[in-house]
Backbone:
DNA sequence: CCGTATCCGATGAGATACTG
DNA sequence: CAGTATCTCATCGGATACGG
């Protein structure tokens, strides 16, 4: 992916960092995963599904809309109804993100195990 | 991925969130990408390559080591030499992360464009 | 129902200076 | 070289309360 010398700033790492700084945070990833699954979700459906606070959901949805990953449709009924769905760009993001989600589900136990071992070893060193 | 009713807390989202909270941050992703590329890197090589501060690199590397993604080898020479490499778990993480990195590189322009459009439209609404 | 505004603590992240 | 220790500032993220 990166063909620069080991030393010296890697321009690609810089750009990847930039993109991940925009759409790479935890909530954005989970929102994209959920929308890909259900096609269309209302605000409170997303909120309950993810267990996210109202504030964060509001912020993240606007970011995602701004970055062109999510489409927002406002129905001026009473009570109001707002629906969110992925754009094409959003779906293209879904592909790699889904792989990441699956890895996460599969490997949580491995990480837990590694942590436990690391911590117990650190404990032993301290007492030694 | 998630087969729960739309409403109601999604346990899988919760767990994915948990994993991403550990290894899903920007620097960890970039460290894994770099190590996958070069196999073995020393502390300062990574530092220069990523353009990361000494402090953050130190913290992130220890996290990654603790979570079992990165292996740390200390050579007690003078001056000291410390080498970092991916573990098997780290390499298994690399696969989905690489896809994410490639997407990021490919779609930075699209995101920029979407942002620009969003911002200009917001600007027009304000002045209307 | 769909948000915004405010307050607050926890974490992220660079800069700088110091040690073995 | 490979870190640790502080200090400082920004951002993340929940809780709560309020408005259309």
Residues:
């Amino acid at each position: 992916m990166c063909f620069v010398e080991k030393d010296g700033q890697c321009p690609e790492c810089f750009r990847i960092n930039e993109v991940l700084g925009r759409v790479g945070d935890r909530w954005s990833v989970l929102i994209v995963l959920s929308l890909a699954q259900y096609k269309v979700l209302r605000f409170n459906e997303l909120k309950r599904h993810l267990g996210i606070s109202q504030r964060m959901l509001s912020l993240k949805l606007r970011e995602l809309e701004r970055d062109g990953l999510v489409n927002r449709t406002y129905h001026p009924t009473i009570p109001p109804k707002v629906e969110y769905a992925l754009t094409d760009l959003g779906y293209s993001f879904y592909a790699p993100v889904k792989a990441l989600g699956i890895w996460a589900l599969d490997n949580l136990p491995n990480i837990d195990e590694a942590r436990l071992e690391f911590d117990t070893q650190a404990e032993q060193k301290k007492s030694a």
About this structure: Residues 42-44, 54-55, 57-58, 74, 77-82 of chain A lie near DNA strand C (CB under 10 Å from a C1'). Residues 88-127 of chain A form the longest helix (40 residues).
